[in-house]
Each structure stands twice: as structure tokens, then as C-alpha cells.
Automatic annotation (TrEMBL):
<dbReference type="Pfam" id="PF13410">
    <property type="entry name" value="GST_C_2"/>
</dbReference>
<dbReference type="Pfam" id="PF13409">
    <property type="entry name" value="GST_N_2"/>
</dbReference>
<dbReference type="InterPro" id="IPR036282">
    <property type="entry name" value="Glutathione-S-Trfase_C_sf"/>
</dbReference>
<dbReference type="InterPro" id="IPR004045">
    <property type="entry name" value="Glutathione_S-Trfase_N"/>
</dbReference>
<protein>
    <submittedName>
        <fullName>Glutathione S-transferase</fullName>
    </submittedName>
</protein>
<feature type="domain" description="GST N-terminal">
    <location>
        <begin position="1"/>
        <end position="82"/>
    </location>
</feature>
<dbReference type="InterPro" id="IPR036249">
    <property type="entry name" value="Thioredoxin-like_sf"/>
</dbReference>
Length: 204
């Protein structure tokens, strides 16, 4: 299998964490891929018509995308147990969606600054994106700590990758303010070897 990869992508990071946690790193060839919303990689488009990473090429089927699909596939392939059964399953899926929602807003903010000139940027729109992130962090801090403190699952991985990306691209906004329990959990969870090995960085 081949994974279209960028070290800065939080969506790719989710996949990499799953590969680490399920012991499948040696089964996947990492393919560095440079792509942006305004200049998508021609090679990537051949694998994913949306031109987005991650994309996972398989030997026995179509290329898989997006990160949630790839993570579920890899978890099933490696018997990782990251999507538990029963009541906890729905909480796990909800937390995974919440983490991805944070990422969607955080990536949109980063793209706004990177690809739009200052006169074209919309401050109300940017404020709205950060408001979504702030509400999500407050909800986790107030309602989801018991789940986050439980056995490892995909919801925790998604949230950790989202918070790590906030530190990477939006550290000055300080998501930790008013979210002490969440910040303490993230400090502990972020020390896992799979998280330490996949911390985001800009490509050289």
C-alpha cells in the first residue's frame, strides 16, 4: 500500500497515528505529496479526484480517502479495536467527528491567511471559524473528559490530532484558556509514542 503524505497535514497525522498504534507502519510506503487547494498535485488527482490528502492506494482495490475512511479501514485490517462496540462506539464516532470539525475550521483559518490577500480576508468569517473551535473545546472540557480518560479509541486520536494542529498553526489563540481539564489530558495523551513520532511540521 502507498499513502500520499505531508508532514504538516493533521488528517495525514491521524492515519499515521493509527499505523503506529496498530503495528502496520511496515505495510505502507509513505509518498511525500505537495498539494494545495489552488495548485493540486496532478499525480494525487489521479488517485483522489478531490485532490486531497491522505489517500491510500491499495493493491486489491480502489484508492481510499478521506482520513476517516482510511483510519477505519486500517483499524479493521490491523484488528486495532479503535472503534469499540456498544454505547461507547457512538461516543467514539461523535468525538472523531468533533475532532475533524475542529480541524476543518482550523485548516480553513490557515488557508485564509496563506492563500488570500489581506484585503480579501473576512474577519467575521475567521471569527466564526474560531468560535466553532472554542465551543468544541469547551464542550470537551465540560462533557467528554470521562470518555477521553478511557481506553484508547479513534475519538481520542482525532481530538489529540486536532489540538496538536491548533498548537502548530494557531498557538497564539490559546485554546487551553478556560479548558484546564482538556489541556491536562492532552499533555498526557500527547506523550504517547505514536503522537510524539507524528507531530506536525512543515515540509523542508
Amino acid at each position: 500500500m502507498k499513502l500520499s503524505y505531508s508532514p504538516a497535514s493533521p488528517y495525514v497525522r491521524k492515519v499515521m497515528v493509527v499505523l503506529h498504534e496498530t503495528g502496520q507502519l511496515d505495510d505502507v510506503e509513505i509518498v511525500p505529496t505537495a498539494t494545495t487547494p489552488v495548485a493540486p498535485s496532478a499525480d494525487l488527482i489521479g488517485k483522489n479526484p478531490l485532490g486531497r490528502i491522505p489517500a491510500l492506494e491499495r493493491d486489491d482495490g480502489p484508492t481510499l480517502f478521506d482520513s476517516r475512511v482510511i483510519c477505519a479501514f486500517l483499524d479493521a485490517r490491523g484488528n486495532g479495536g479503535l472503534y469499540p462496540l456498544g454505547k461507547r462506539r457512538w461516543e467514539t464516532l461523535t468525538l472523531e467527528a468533533l475532532g475533524d470539525g475542529i480541524l476543518d475550521s482550523a485548516v480553513n483559518l490557515a488557508y485564509e491567511a496563506r492563500f488570500r490577500t489581506e484585503e480579501m480576508r473576512s474577519q467575521p468569517w475567521m471569527d466564526g471559524q474560531w468560535a466553532k473551535i472554542s465551543r468544541a473545546c469547551a464542550a470537551m472540557n465540560g462533557m467528554w473528559m470521562s470518555h477521553l480518560a478511557g481506553p484508547l479509541d479513534m475519538g481520542q486520536i482525532s481530538i489529540a490530532c486536532a489540538l496538536g494542529y491548533l498548537d502548530f498553526r494557531h498557538d497564539a489563540r490559546n485554546w487551553r484558556q478556560g479548558n484546564d481539564a482538556l489541556a491536562d489530558w492532552f499533555t498526557r495523551f500527547d506523550s504517547r509514542p505514536s503522537l510524539a513520532a507524528t507531530r506536525p511540521r512543515d515540509a523542508k
